[in-house]
Structure formats: C-alpha cells, structure tokens
Design a protein that fits this description.
With 485 residues, the chain is α+β, with helices and mostly antiparallel strands. The chain is built from 14 helices and 17 strands. It is elongated, with a radius of gyration of 24 Å. The structure holds flavin-adenine dinucleotide. Flavin-adenine dinucleotide (FAD) is lined by residues 10-16, 33-36, 41-43, 45-49, 161-162, 196-198, 219-220, 223-224, 227-228, 263, 408-409, 437-439, 453-456, 459.
C-alpha cells in the first residue's frame, strides 16, 4: 500500500504538531505519523518552561528584552558552545511563539515571565510556563490540530512508526511506515520529509553510544528512542553535539537498577529555593561541590566529573526534624516506606554503618563530616566555601539518599543548516530531508550547558516556521505544475 502527500512529518510531539498545523494552514497536504497511541510526545511530562524575548507579556510588565539580549544570554550560559546561527534563528522566533500560544488560549502561570534557577539563570525575566506545564501547551496545540483534522487537511496515523526513509531521483521522498507492532507497512511518498521524532533519553544503549558510554538516568519517556535520528544517519546525515551532554542536578530513581528518575517527586536542590542542610558526597565519601553555590551550572559540571553521575545527600536526625523538606513531593508515609525498602534510601545508627550500607568509603565519609562539622562550629572556614551551615551532622540515626545527574533532553542530534535541512558528512543538504526539535540535538541550541526553555520554545518555533515554509512551497509547486500543464 502507498500514500502520496506534500509533507510527511515523523513524530506528533512538541515540534511535529505545530509543523503539521502550519503546513496544513498554508494549504499543504500533510501526513503525520506517530509511533504511540497519542499525540503530544514529551509535552505529556515536560515542564515546558519556555524562553522568548520581546513578548507582549514582558512589555505589559515593563520588562525590556530583545532577541539580541536573549542570544547573548544563551551564548554566555553555553560559554559560546551553542550553534550561533541556529540560536539566532531560535531566539528570533521565541517571543512570537509565546505570543502565538497566548493568542490561542494558553493558560500562563501568573508569576511569568520570571528568572528561574533550576537551570542557569537568565539575566532578564523571560521564562514562561503553563499552569499545567507541558500539558498546557498541548491543550493549545490539540485544539488547533483538531480543527485541521476535522477539515481533513491532515492525515494522522497513530501506532505508526517510520522504519526506513525512501529515496527517489531527487533525494529523500518519504518513508516506510510500520502500522502497529507487526502490522502491514505503508510507503508514504512525500515532497518533503521532516524528522520531528525527538531525542533518545529513553534508550540506554543509544545514550551510551552517542554520549561517551555514560550511564543513563532519565526523566524522558521510554518512547524517546532516537530511532528518527538513526534514520537520518542511515540516510547519510551527520551526528553533532554529543560532546555537549551535561547532567541536570539531580533526581532519585523510581526503581533502583533502572534508569527512570522520579520526575514528579524531585528533591529540592535549588539553593535559591531551599538552602541545603545536607552535604553531597561521592562514593569516596568526599564532597565534590559547594552545595549552596548560586550557579547550578557549577554544580552540574562538578557532578559531570563523577563517572557514574551518582552522589549521596547525607544528613542526620536533627536535620531531618528541623530542615524544610528535602523531598517536598513525598508524604511522611512514602518516606518511611522508602527508608524501609527503596535501595536509594539508607538509615544507620553510625556513620560507619551508613558507609557499609551505601558502599561509601568509610574513612572518607568520617573525615568529610569531621571537617564539615568544624566549619559549622565556626572553628575554620568550609573548605569548599559553603556559606549555609545550619547544623552539624552529628545526631544518629544518619541518613543518605542516592541521587543521580539526569537527562531531560539528549545532546546529540542531526546536523542541520538554518533552513533545517539535514546535512551530510560533507555539510551538503540531503534533498527532501529536514529535522527539528530534539532530533537536531539538545546541545545544538544549549551547547555545553542547560539553557532554560531552549528545547520547547525552539521546537515550537522551528516547527511553525518549517511547517509554514514547506507548506507554502508545496502549494506554490502545485500551482506552478498546474500552470505548466
Ligand atoms: C521531564 C522533562 C522536563 C522537561 N522540561 C523542559 C522545560 O521546562 N523546558 C524545555 O525547553 N525543555 C524541557 N524538556 C525538554 C523538552 O520537553 C523536549 O526536548 C521537547 O519537548 C522535545 O520535543 P520534540 O518534538 O523534539 O520531541 P517529542 O515531543 O518527544 O516528540 C517526538 C515524537 O516522535 C515520536 N516518534 C519517535 N520516533 C518515531 C518514529 N520512528 N516514528 C513515528 N513516531 C516517532 C515519539 O513517540 C514522540 O511522540 C523537558 C524534558 C523532560 C523529559
């Protein structure tokens, strides 16, 4: 069986949905294929904090901002390692993307736009998010998408995985789509094929292959397999930005031995929100970072130097009683249950026992705590420069919670030019093949850092831009054919 269309979009997520909406608005015929049984992709779990400069909301709040200022902030935070031309394009689209969401009923959280500290802070309040995170963005996209579907301008194929790209005389001319897990295949021939298939944060093997063998701890969905990137590579594309992986600070696994981070119940490790009462130690029992340093980038880089991206938050019983909750999303019952069975949680009568239970080096831990307690007592400065020293770690039982540097988006992806055409090994565009969203690599727009909002906003903005451009081109091409005939 085969289908013909103007535009084939692979992946009905953050980038694929706006691309489909705008291409169909431009009058193009669109086939959108999605391997799962629902549209939305990562928007179902993403916080979807977006960054856009020059929004109407900023103007209404008297916040002066511009794409140039946003660009400079991205390049400062990424230390110049993000792709400058693509960042310029992304920040140029960011403000209008947020305004477009607002025009279409987006329910913005009332405290936006803000400066946040979960990722390295911007200098200007430009971060916006919905009252229901990514699901607020999806609500807007779904309404627009449903309109286009009901007008039969888009054909949506769920349970449909792109398994191979098809070549024709000009270049990539569509893809083979497998329906269901073992269903029949359909060849979709298309004037343009767009890889909007997301990253690979749900795939341990690809993560190790494309990120120097690192272990994966992840809040991404298991459907983030990287198969679309793989298709682009098989078509001759080039992998970029893999060297830019930086772990996000930090989470606890749902089930020990598995890579899945409990995203809904993250520990509160942002010192601007909750100054730390615990110390963070590696398996050698040594602290590896000043826990209250303002810069999350500094904490993430220190964590990246630990080969298994694993550390322990260590504290005592008095800190447990007196400190604001380290795990605000956990009920007392859930915490008690975790301490009795979850292998990331440890309680012990002595520091030696705690070391034995966790595998932390005992003498390293004892030295570290002795030195830390002296700093708390004011007998010497903290060796790492920590300022927030509320209580010593002295009262049994002692506790340690194992935490990991985690993935929210994956760094590596397909090289593209500013028209989002996939580039081959010689930097030439592969005709007919485009990519956007996480498929172009999270490191492309954030470089060797985590720049807030620089995944969801460009996925939406590039999606709209590419859908409109390819949609218009398809309609113009058809009109030209009609004239020729
Ligand atoms: C927990 C979490 C929090 C985050 N918070 C933020 C944030 O606050 N701000 C921010 O900017 N970024 C954030 N991110 C990252 C951001 O959400 C993602 O990078 C972005 O949503 C990815 O968009 P995408 O369109 O590229 O991929 P997705 O939205 O994942 O869509 C890809 C779609 O393609 C489908 N697909 C894949 N392969 C195939 C195939 N071969 N055939 C058919 N379909 C296929 C998938 O099933 C999926 O539906 C977060 C990510 C996570 C996991």
């Amino acid at each position: 069986m085969s289908i013909s269309t103007d535009l084939l979009i692979i992946g009905a997520g953050t980038a694929g949905l706006p691309a489909a909406i705008e291409a169909s608005n431009a009058g193009a015929r669109v086939v959108l294929v999605e391997q799962t049984d629902r549209i939305g992709g990562t928007l179902h779990v993403s916080a979807a904090q977006m960054s856009g400069a020059g929004t109407r909301l900023q103007a209404a709040r008297g916040i002066a901002d511009s794409p140039q200022a946003h660009y400079e902030d991205v390049m400062r935070i990424s230390r110049g390692t993000a792709h400058a031309d693509l960042v310029r394009k992304a920040v140029g689209l960011g403000g209008s993307t947020i305004d477009w969401l607002m025009d279409n009923g987006f329910e913005m959280a009332p405290e936006c736009p803000a400066i946040l500290h979960f990722h390295e802070a911007y200098r200007t309040p430009r971060t916006c998010w919905g009252v229901d995170g990514g699901r607020s963005v999806l609500k807007v996209l779904r309404a627009l998408f449903d309109d286009a579907l009901s007008d039969r301008r888009i054909e949506l194929m769920l349970h449909s995985e792109a398994v191979e790209l098809l070549w024709n005389a000009e270049g990539i001319g569509g893809a083979t789509i497998r329906r269901g897990t073992e269903g029949p295949s359909v060849d979709v021939s298309a004037g343009a094929t767009v890889l909007a298939s997301g990253g690979y944060g749900g795939n341990c093997q690809r993560f190790a292959d494309w990120n120097d063998g690192l272990p994966l701890y992840t809040a991404a969905l298991p459907t983030a397999t990287g198969s679309g990137i793989e298709l682009g590579l098989k078509a001759g594309g080039r992998l970029v930005s893999g060297q830019h992986h930086l772990p996000t600070f930090a989470g606890i696994v749902r089930t020990p031995g598995q890579p899945w981070i409990d995203w809904d119940s993250l520990p509160q490790l942002t010192p601007q929100v909750r100054p730390p009462w615990e110390i963070y130690v590696g398996r050698d029992g040594r602290r590896f970072v000043q826990e209250d340093v303002d810069s999350v980038d500094a904490r993430e880089r220190a964590l990246a130097a630990i080969p298994d991206l694993t550390f322990f938050a260590v504290f005592d019983d008095r800190i447990r009683r007196d400190a604001p909750p380290l795990l605000p999303g956990w009920s007392a019952d859930a915490l008690a249950a975790a301490c009795n069975g979850h292998a990331s949680f440890h309680v012990a009568k002595t520091l030696g026992e705690l070391a034995g239970a966790t595998g932390i080096d005992g003498s390293g831990l004892a030295d570290t705590i002795e030195t830390y307690n002296e700093a708390v007592a004011g007998r010497r400065p903290d060796p790492l420069g920590r300022q927030h020293l509320p209580l010593p770690i002295a009262e049994p039982p002692f506790r340690a919670i194992m935490m990991h540097g985690m993935v929210l988006k994956t760094a590596a992806g397909l090289a593209v030019d500013e028209a989002l055409r996939v580039l081959d090994l010689d930097d030439r565009p592969i005709p007919g093949l485009y990519a956007l969203g996480e498929a172009i690599g999270g490191g492309t727009l954030s470089g060797n850092a985590f720049v807030g909002g620089m995944s969801v906003t460009p996925a939406l903005g590039f999606g709209r831009w590419l859908g409109l451009s390819l949609g218009r081109a398809a309609v113009a091409g058809r009109a030209a054919d009609a004239v020729t005939v």
